[in-house]
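Notes from the 1:1 (GR / supervisor)

We went over the backlog. Supervisor wanted to see one worked example end to end before approving the batch request, so GR pasted a single chain during the call. The sequence is below; no edits were made to it. Supervisor asked that the structure be written out right there so they could see what the output format looks like.
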Amino acid sequence: MSMERILSEIRSFEGVLELAPQPGSEHPRVSWGDYFFYFAPDGQVPTNRQPYATIVTKNYPDDAESRLDAPDRWRLNIHVGTKIAAELLGRAPAEARTPEADYSAEDVFLPHPLYGAYGWVCVVNPAESTLDTALEALRTAHRDDRRRVERRRGDDSAMKG
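Structure output shown during the call:
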């Protein structure tokens, strides 16, 4: 599965802000080449919350189990909440991390290696088995982030659709 298909879908979401740090930017070197997604229709990177989805293209300190330093490997991470995570994983996210879990497996939903207990799921190289569900999870995560932002602002529109 091409990363471009997922990026294209996310970029179509109303109010999405894509942060894609590039070499030489003010962002930490480890983040260069990765993608971070927020609901931020004002175009400003939020300082009071985490992104609702990320695409990472390399290992991070303390997060190397997906073996993203190998060629052509990347991981989609989505904050879906613990209820949807349990549905995708087949058990509560806090129980899904097991010693035998293979976080390098491709095209399967797994709890995020570090944040799974908080409702984050991930997929290394999403493809045929996970693509449709991953795209739906991204739409849901974007909608949920939008609702949180609007609720904090006190928008009446937060209660609609």
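Supervisor's comment: The beta strands are 16-19, 35-39, 53-56, 75-79, 110-111, 120-124.
Batch request approved.
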